[in-house]
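Sample A.
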Amino acid sequence: MKQILLVALGVFGLFAASSLPAFSQSPGTVDAKVTPLVLSVNLSQASVDYGSMPLSLDDGTRTTAASTAIGVTNTGSVTANLIIRGSDAEPANGADATWTLSCDPPEQGTVAQDQFAHRFVKTPGDFTSAQALCSDSDKTLATDVVALTGSIDFRLQMNMPTASTGFSQRTTSVVVTAVQP
């Protein structure tokens, strides 16, 4: 019986010793640091008012108006690319038709009944090098814009439809976004 008790105490002693936590005399430390990646832009103006404009005669004879320069500053924490996107033009009167934004062909877009083109160009530059904004895909406005201080200027150009279902004011949005290169 003494042998069984000694074996049992020996097994218990091994189990008890292996389950005790081990403490170090000098613990190690790891410092972990993180910097938030912030992608953001600031625009120099929040709106463009083209005023009242006549309709275009046809796609080859467009009625257009250009904005003044709009500044975009990268206010994020990293160098970023800037992308730009347009939208359809919503009527103030719900009975009037929404104008569809055209970006085909990519440089011009096409104007037609209830269809307009909204174009952009980096400043300085004239509209011969402009691109049509799209509502379903982004276009590159600028690349590698430096964080906190990097900025560019661009201008917009409205290209009126050839005919309109209803004559209430239309509102379209242009969104500029900072993205990682």
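Sample B.
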Amino acid sequence: MDIIYQRGRATAAEVHEGLPDAPSYSAVRALLRILEEKGVVAHEQDGPRYVYVPTVNRSAARQSALRNLLRTFFDGSPTQAVAALLDLSGQQMSSAELDSLETMIKQAKKEGR
């Protein structure tokens, strides 16, 4: 999806070329078909090629993916997800990132979320 969002539209070949450690071309096409069945992308015919375009804006797709991630790996708990992010070995969060998180938490408390 990142490649399609970055380009605005892309063929399966362009998606395949843009993936590091890409799976097979047929696997990319299969994934694009699944994304189309889920309503996340649509295709337009351009001669013999399908050109895929996003049907959901990036922000909405990000929210949906994050909800699924929380439900699947963190029992729906944002706290567990944040704890996992803070606990990633070898990953240091900068003071600015930690300050930003602190500001967001204070704002959420203020708004009663």
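B remarks: The beta strands are 10-11, 41-46, 49-54. The mean pLDDT is 92.
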